[in-house]
Write a structure and sequence with these properties.
Layout (H helix, E strand, L loop, with lengths): L2 H8 L10 H10 E6 L4 E3 L7 E7 L2 E5 L2 E6 L4 E2 L1 H6 L6 E4 L3 E7 H10 L1 H20 L13
Antiparallel strand pairs: 1-8, 2-7, 3-6, 3-8, 4-5, 4-7
Helix pairs in contact: 1-2
Length: 149
C-alpha cells in the first residue's frame, strides 16, 4: 500500500478529520498494514490497548462477554479512544474473514504528536466536535419538574 493510499484511508477516520494532507502523510508513515486470517483475534477483551485499527477490508465481530455488539467492516476503526488514553478496550474483536487493517502503534503515535503540536490540536478539535454533538443531542423522555422552572 502506498503512502497516498494510506493517506486516503486515514482521511476517513473521524479522529483525524481536522488534519491536513501533510499531517495525514506523517501518520501514514507510521501506519502498518496487517493481514489477518479468519478466526484470529484482533483485540482481546479488556487487554491493554496499544494501537488503533482501521479496517481496510474484511469483517470483524465485536463482542462483550459472549454477546455480539456489532460487526465492523471496511473504513471502521477500533481502538481510537484507547489510542489517546491507553485504557483497555472493553470489547473483544475477532476476524470473521480475511481482513486487512492499518495499525497505528500508540507509543509511536504519541511520539509523533509530541513533535507536531498542530496534529494534537487537530485531534482535540475532532474530540471536542464529538462531545458537542453528544451535548447538543436532544434528550428524549418526559420533562422533569426542573424543566418548568
Amino acid at each position: 500500500m502506498t503512502i497516498m493510499e494510506k493517506v486516503l484511508a486515514l482521511n476517513e477516520v473521524d479522529l483525524f478529520s481536522h488534519m491536513t494532507t501533510e499531517e495525514l502523510s506523517i501518520l501514514a508513515t507510521i501506519a502498518e498494514e496487517v493481514h489477518l486470517s479468519s478466526g484470529e483475534p484482533l483485540i482481546r477483551e479488556n487487554s491493554p490497548s496499544d494501537s488503533l485499527q482501521l479496517l481496510l477490508s474484511g469483517r470483524v465481530r465485536v463482542t462483550r462477554g459472549h454477546q455480539e455488539i456489532f460487526v465492523a467492516g471496511a473504513n471502521d476503526t477500533l481502538g481510537a479512544l484507547s489510542l489517546m488514553d491507553g485504557q483497555p478496550w472493553p470489547f473483544g474483536a475477532e476476524v470473521l474473514e480475511p481482513t486487512d487493517v492499518l495499525r497505528i502503534d500508540r507509543e509511536t503515535f504519541l511520539d509523533v504528536l509530541a513533535d507536531h503540536t498542530r496534529m494534537t490540536e487537530a485531534i482535540l478539535q475532532s474530540l471536542v466536535k464529538k462531545v458537542r454533538r453528544l451535548v447538543d443531542t436532544p434528550v428524549s423522555g418526559p420533562p422533569t419538574d426542573d424543566a418548568n422552572d
